[in-house]
């Protein structure tokens, strides 16, 4: 296993081949999740091409029609085309999910790095994080939106806040375990400045768990956003989101179950695919599995 | 010893055994051996030789997801274990064949009381009622010389020392008086004095019960003390096997001879005249840990006030068992943990008096090499960047860094072409050389080696010891060498301090201390070294060239 | 052991303090003057002035916080802006349905989750494992309200076994109680069961790689014994950790479930208070639900020491 390849070019070719094989294996193992996600993203991006209906077009003559050839998913109370609204709704849901994950990861990473490395700040920071974590996520998000008013930015903020402590804790635990690694101690003995130790020796090792965590945050953010919309405290009702469509449709559920089921199906499939992808990433990055391979 | 007829009875017969990965790669290839009742067969080899895989194959405890036997047979008293059903195997385990493991700290279930765990063996094999089982376990605890068996019976594993836990595992393994005992490096994780006791215990119980012992080890000292016969393995194959005395004195294979010659002698190298100035002075250094919180606040003195002086070109050994405070001393000097008290002077200048920026810069004078070469390097960086890290911190010019990297890599016996590689492409010994190169990049006046050769195979260990001696001669660097291995200390150190429970019990020249120890503990420590009187290199016939 | 429990209890004090501070400051996160928010846009300057005096809004923030904490500690959560009733009374009136729902859900989860995890670990890599774990991923990927409507559609609308909505207290009619609480409890427990069974399986599998499992096998222990006697108890701590922290899903899920099934519990009250911007009521609810969550986690912390002797310092 420790034999050395003969020349640098052979070596890099071999490494590239190994990397390609790993990527191919990952794609193969997660084909369902990746396909579903790709389709959902395409549906959102290509919504104008997939349907000629305008999601916001109000047609009083077409109120609450069951699925038909003109409106595949039926129409809602205002006569809007539900298929169009579901397709366009993909955009808001995915955007909220990705944005929340990105912001939560960056903020949580910074807090976690500081908390893990600077022992003097650790106590205070972690108590605040514990406090935020002690408020159930949906409740906190609902309250924040209620107080700040519902628009895109406040909704994203309200979903980000409860996610940050989890990321910060994860990063902190990685940093704490790395602090006592001999290679970090060697860097300390070499008089390496703290910022460089964090940047060079710790940050790269937090990336793998962060990517995994990030994918789970995307899933849970999409769920939380739809729950907020469903409860009527999410994005304004004129923006088509899966949660909003269901919130409007639930009153007519017994008459037209599709108003709840079609957006619900899109929502569940998307979240399922993201969670499966997260599982796949975790298996891929899990050092124990790598060691065994 | 038991009687002669019993001696000749074959308990374990391994014939043409091959164990492979699922990919088809053979980890153990076509090995055959017998173990007789009452005898000890030692399988010796370096890491990766397949010796442990062999022992797990006999117990049929290989991870079926990774390894499986693909050819040959393993017969225990005539029963072919490779053909046995899993139910049959479960009946045989503990009853006819038993195993003790390398890591006593993790071998026991941490959340169950000790007594219950040993009683479980009897429970599984349906021996006796509850009261009877309990009595038998207590009796067995007495046999393995556990102090206060009643207390141990009710204790949890974390309340026992490593040596005590290993005694519990031995009790568990032998309570049903199996015919075969497999011991996989059972003393490697233990201190040398505990090792001596455990080895004695195993051989006493073996004599009493007539057990056949298959003993896996990498340590020729242990082999010399306990083996009746030896089997040497290398890369999954048998190199040679035969009577212990034959193999140790006149091995037929060159590989065996090289291995035996690499074992450092306990006879110290002759003293050198040290004329250099003191580069590192430590006065009253102490470390106290405070544990727990308010109602149960306790403290623990890992290091009592300690002094030492290190001269230019000197190698000072700090020896002791685990918990002796030797590593704490090293880490305090390297300022990886803050000392609770004490003064450090580097070339006469006190570190305490420096400003915090100067303190950081003064780190360059003291560098450290750690035990585990696999965790000592950031696996994402190329070797060049690893070696260059310190020089970058001290703003060396890029051209200068490149020149020094080339120089350093050659100084530790590797080629400059390797600078573009990553750590995972290197062997353990090569990694440790890179760690040394990195430590030397800032031209420190003191190099601390914290068990720096302890994780290496003997043949690699020998090379790294030579490298350190060579670097001392050429660069005049002073080395503070922390080790638990008296053999290594004897070959390397000018002076030695012996530590126990955070205190220095004896200090002096290596030659004096190792040949005429004054302190009782030092004497005890030296006596515990396996095959203490056996100077392997001199006893083995047909010498091979020592240096290339 | 006693010291450990006492220390865990003491450790929740700063957490509760931070929660109280967060809840208190919610009002000040809102854009604009708290007095205007409370009294409404139409209030006159004099009314606002009086309001500030009455509620102590003219005093420095730390003083306001201290007074507020004092009142909360004595059980006074303030008065609802909307109904004028005491917040504590309003919440008290809604505890019943939520408590019933929570009890049935927790019982259901415990019966399902751990055995599912054990079976999956036992059948690791085989079809039983794969199907159980697929159900689990599906379980926490499907939003509570979608699960709720699917169940309503199948069992109430189509089969007619359960009422579509509404709640009957157990004291009134135990049979009707069961009929009204079964679907909500299933809905609510699905995600929780999914999470707990997954962690049960994965911690069991992780334990199977430990040295003491190898020792157990060397003793001749059967697979069943290895899993149930050796792996399970050692896996208790990670399972408890997830079971405790995932209780947040339950509490959050209560809000959505009660809304779907129209149960008159605390969860519905949360939505009502938010839609009415009834700040004292919102604050009181968050505070109370967070305390419940902190209590659950305190309980799991204490249970750690029952399962793992190393945590009894």
From TrEMBL, chain A:
One Gene Ontology CC term in the entry: plasma membrane
The biological processes this protein is annotated with in GO are: transmembrane transport
**Residue intervals passing through the bilayer:** 25-50, 94-118, 138-162, 255-278
Which Pfam families does this UniProt record tie to the protein?
Answer: BPD_transp_1 (PF00528)
Q: Extract the CDD domains matched here.
A: TM_PBP2
- Decide whether keyword Cell wall biogenesis/degradation is in the record: no
Task: List the keywords (alphabetical).
Answer: Cell membrane, Membrane, Transmembrane, Transmembrane helix, Transport
The places in or outside the cell where this protein is found are: Cell membrane
**Can you give the residue ranges of the ABC transmembrane type-1 domain?**
94-278
Query: Per the record's keyword annotation, is Transmembrane helix included, yes or no?
Result: yes
Regarding the membrane, this protein is recorded as: Multi-pass membrane protein
UniProt similarity note: Belongs to the binding-protein-dependent transport system permease family.
UniProt protein name: ABC transporter permease
UniProtKB/TrEMBL annotation, chain C:
Q: Which UniProt keywords apply?
A: Cell membrane, Membrane, Transmembrane, Transmembrane helix, Transport
Its annotated compartments are: Cell membrane
Q: Which organism is it from?
A: Nitratireductor indicus C115
CDD domains cross-referenced by the UniProt entry: TM_PBP2 (cd06261)
User: Which membrane topology term applies here?
Assistant: Multi-pass membrane protein
User: Family per UniProt?
Assistant: Belongs to the binding-protein-dependent transport system permease family.
User: In terms of one coarse class, where is the protein primarily found?
Assistant: membrane
Can you name one GO molecular function term for this protein? dipeptide transmembrane transporter activity
PROSITE patterns assigned to the protein according to its UniProt record, in alphabetical order: ABC_TM1 (PS50928)
This chain belongs to the protein called ABC transporter permease
InterPro entries named among the record's database cross-references: BPD_transp_1_N, MetI-like, MetI-like_sf
SUPFAM superfamilies this protein is in? MetI-like
Q: Which Gene Ontology terms of cellular component type are present? A: plasma membrane
Q: Which residues form the ABC transmembrane type-1 domain?
A: 95-304
